[in-house]
Amino acid sequence: MGDSKKRRRKEASGEELPFKKQLKADSAIMETLKQLSASSSSVGETLTVQELKLPFQCREVADLSLSSVQSNIESLILKIAHSILSGQGFSFEVPSRSAANQLYVPQLDRIVLKDKSSQRPFANISTVRKSAITARILQLIHQLCIKGIHVTKRDLFYTDVKLFQDQIQSDAVLDDVSCMLGCTRSSLNVVAAEKGVVVGRLIFSDNGDMIDCTKMGMGGKAIPPNIDRVGDMQSDALFILLVEKDAAYMRLAEDRFYNRFPCIIVTAKGQPDVSTRLFLRKMKTELKLPVLALVDSDPYGLKILSVYGCGSKNMSYDSANLTTPDIKWLGVRPSDLDKYKIPEQCRLPMTEQDIKTGKDLLEEDFVKKNPGWVEELTLMVKTKQKAEIQALSTFGFQYLSEVYLPLKLQQKDWL
Amino acid sequence: MGDSKKRRRKEASGEELPFKKQLKADSAIMETLKQLSASSSSVGETLTVQELKLPFQCREVADLSLSSVQSNIESLILKIAHSILSGQGFSFEVPSRSAANQLYVPQLDRIVLKDKSSQRPFANISTVRKSAITARILQLIHQLCIKGIHVTKRDLFYTDVKLFQDQIQSDAVLDDVSCMLGCTRSSLNVVAAEKGVVVGRLIFSDNGDMIDCTKMGMGGKAIPPNIDRVGDMQSDALFILLVEKDAAYMRLAEDRFYNRFPCIIVTAKGQPDVSTRLFLRKMKTELKLPVLALVDSDPYGLKILSVYGCGSKNMSYDSANLTTPDIKWLGVRPSDLDKYKIPEQCRLPMTEQDIKTGKDLLEEDFVKKNPGWVEELTLMVKTKQKAEIQALSTFGFQYLSEVYLPLKLQQKDWL
After folding, report:
1. Which of A126, A369, B83, B103 has a CA positioned 20 to 30 A from the CA of residue A404?
2. Cβ–Cβ under 8 Å, residues B178 and B165
3. Which UniProt keywords apply (chains A, B) (predicted)?
4. Is B318 within the bounds of a domain?
């Protein structure tokens, strides 16, 4: 390879890369980043639901220790036994997770669950199955607490296929049980499949092993599925770069972008999974670093950003633990397409479905509260054009790491 | 968590786990594994196409250095320039990758490409576009060689969307170019997205960083996309456990199965990707360890096993580098369903498509050469039942790591 480097010619295209001339020295860009980082760490603690004094009650869950989860289950079952012995039969009180019971709270910048709940009596033909499933899930979680092991939702389903019939049913009751016990799903020791990877200026412990993410080559470190065994985070990074796609992540990892501008690079390779969301939140909370997001310029890019930022509706009861507040939209933004002169053939026409999704997003509170985002999304829907992060490769494979991102950082061009 | 362990009661189910009584001491099982490992490392080098003296010519590619790839491209283009200057126009000679040109060679135990090739002249309306694309891909690969960087197929597509129109077109020509230059796709520095993870008794270097896979917690190490930067493999493992699914991988990683029976655990989380296939082959070749596969008991489980073992038809020109010979089918096998008394409700009926895929597999040479596999697959098609690895959770979440796998190893129950 040294050989091929010697043969490197003066690259004709090097000087002509659009906007490359606008780039200042890295040291100047670093100053910008230090300001960003300082402003991010000086921000006080995020508000809690209690401090807000909302006009309604909110249901939120917390991380509980295994032994607390175990006691909570035991108390619940004792109460039920008393109820049966006193001739009342039994019923579970289950918090409602329906859309009508969800609310976006601007002060918190996330979706929360209100306190409506419903009864799930055993002695009722319409709820007997669900209450049996609930009891079984409680029993299985109790076993997990005793053994101190983690399993996936799929494992849980397979312990009693005859009763659950379909994984959708055991999954839904699992979320119910989280709500009922007032704890996060990770506290139940039920974990999602791991998908995310992390690389860059971060050291942390995974199940007792110390991991140095600057020494993880190009592949990076797989993000562990069980956040409760992650700890001791240390970093000299100035920001976290959240990347939607694998390909962009690889470019940045190979170019060791984190050594040019100290940062931590993380991706869930598409849709954010629970493990990556928990990991991102933990980094943000413990290291107090600003988070900059690099996503495709399409409605799904923004949607992914919103799941990291405000949570998914399905798990709104756990939004306090799963969301990372104040994520900045760095790129690729609809206005970048013209600004960076992305050629027409690298832009794709939006489908009807894309446009509908875009318009729906414009109605969402978490988009509306950020005028910059509204403006960008309106532009996208108007031009009916989308583009992937990879579209930047049209100016050369390393345009992303060598020009686009440094210039974005230099110009503080995030929303 | 220590707390919860203290509260652990004598587990009633522990003694009743099916087949647990048949388990011998771990030391006895280790003896079995040492024999397996010894027999695997004493096997001589695999045959090459040259040694076989086949009745036809075979086209195979090799790992070439970046500078060799660069010279090969330059010679090819020089030849074309001469052809144009002498008034002949130009044409690429492109090896055929069609099914008719592929063959399964039992002695090699993999699919190879025969030497048929076709002309792709520029001055012909039916091939002008493809020859233009070929020239452009050659130029882009040449750039990658000069810069010494890796990109994805998607990046490659985006450098000239106008010409390629569709990623399928640039991907197909990329494979053509591999064949034409006689080198592997990884030698072209075009990598696939990374998907696989590895954990256990393995130390290797990734892009210069030393990675100890016993110290990767539960998450494991992401398998690097660029195999040419992987090296220095060391291991005291007795075998490699190739796992189809994420959930089973997690169970084994959390239980640190590799410390009970020294092994390396690897998964591509479903369909095998090129990076994981290359990584598995490298482990097998350098460490001379036997490979045992744990896949779902369905036609796709066997198909996945066959892709690792014999290659995919699409990349048959590269089968020598991508395949890992002599993978043993450990489980979950169709005969295990009855043998391990998997309850009826944890078995799933096969769909029409499943049955068709199963029957098609029975016609494939790489299945036919292993009578044990034929027997198992015939049983599957006959009973019309399939099951996931997770079905074992029906006996408890840790049944896989505590009973099923140890017993399989003890009984040398692989095919």
Report:
1. A369
2. no
3. DNA-binding, Isomerase, Magnesium, Metal-binding, Nucleotide-binding, Nucleus, Topoisomerase
4. yes
Asked if residue A278 and residue A223 are part of one domain, the reply reads yes
d(CA A315, CA A175): 8
Same domain, A118 and A185: yes
Q: How far is A217 from chain B (nearest CA, A)?
A: 5
Give the tens place of pLDDT for each residue, A50-92: 777 777 777 888 888 999 999 999 999 999 999 999 999 999 9
Q: Are residues B240 and B294 in the same domain?
A: yes
CATH number at residue A75: 1.10.10.10
Q: How far is A199 from chain B (nearest CA, A)?
A: 10
Instruction: Kindly report which listed range (A54-63, A271-280, B213-222) carries the lowest average pLDDT score.
Output: A54-63
User: Cα(A159)–Cα(A208) distance, rounded to whole angstroms?
Assistant: 29
Q: Distance between CA atoms of B212 and B233, rounded to whole angstroms?
A: 10
Whether residue A158 lies in the annotated active site = yes
Considering the domain architecture, whether residues A203 and A186 belong to the same structural domain is answered as no
Identity of the residue numbered B114: K
> Is there a contact between A158 and B388 if contact means CB atoms under 8 Å apart?
yes
Q: Is B133 within 8 Å of B169 (Cβ atoms)?
A: yes
Residue ranges of A for the binding site for Mg(2+)? 244, 296
Helix-helix angle A299-310:A274-287, to 10 degrees: 60
Least confident of A9-23, A220-234, B160-174: A9-23
Measured at the alpha carbon of residue A36, what is the angle toward residues A33 and A41, in degrees to the nearest 5? Answer: 125
Residue B8's pLDDT band (boundaries 50, 70, 90)? very low
The CATH number of whichever domain residue A284 belongs to comes to: 3.40.1360.10
Contact criterion met (CB < 8 Å) for A394 and B158 = yes
Please check whether residue A328 lies inside any domain of the structure.
yes
Determine if the peptide bond prior to B199 is cis (ω within 30°): no
ipTM of the predicted structure?
0.70
In-domain check, residue A243: yes
Q: Is B244 annotated as belonging to a binding site?
A: yes
Q: Which of B191, B214, B236 is the last residue of a domain?
A: B191
Are B242 and B270 in contact by the 8 Å Cβ rule? The answer is no
Give per-residue pLDDT as tens, A162-184. 889 888 999 999 999 998 998 88
Do B151 and B272 lie in a common domain?
A: no
Give the nearest partner residue to A390 out of B158, B221, B343, using CB atoms.
Answer: B158
Domain with A98, as residue range(s), is 54-191
**A185 and A196: one domain?**
no
Q: What's the pLDDT at A9? A: 42
- Residue B311, amino acid: G
B102: which strand partners?
B113
| Secondary structure class of A166 (helix, strand, coil) | coil
Residues B397 and B377 in one domain: yes
Query: Which residue, B191, B212, B231, sits at the end of a domain?
Result: B191
Residue B55 DSSP label:
S
Tell whether B152 is within 8 A of chain A (Cβ). yes
**Is some CB atom of chain A closer than 8 A to the CB atom of B10?**
no
What is the distance in angstroms between the Cα of B278 and the nearest Cα belonging to chain A?
Answer: 14
Query: pLDDT confidence of A46, banded at 50, 70, 90?
Result: low
Among all residues of chain A, which has the CA nearest to that of B388? A158
- Smallest Cα–Cα separation from B347: which of B391, B405, B382? B391
- A144 shares a domain with A217: no
CB of B297 closer than 8 Å to CB of B387: yes
Spatial CB neighbours of B298, under 8 Å, sequence gap ≥ 6? B350, B354, B380, B386, B387, B388
Q: Do A144 and B397 touch (CB under 8 A)?
A: yes
Cβ proximity of B186 and B63 under 8 Å: yes
Q: Residue B333 in 3-state DSSP? A: coil
Is it the case that residue B88 has pLDDT exceeding 60?
Answer: yes
How many domains is chain B built from? 2
Is residue A245 within 8 A of residue A224, CB to CB? The reply is: no
> Closest partner residue to B254 among A149, A157, A345, by Cβ?
A149
Hey, of B186, B211, B254, which one would you mutate to test binding to chain A, going by the most A CBs within 10 A of its CB?
B254
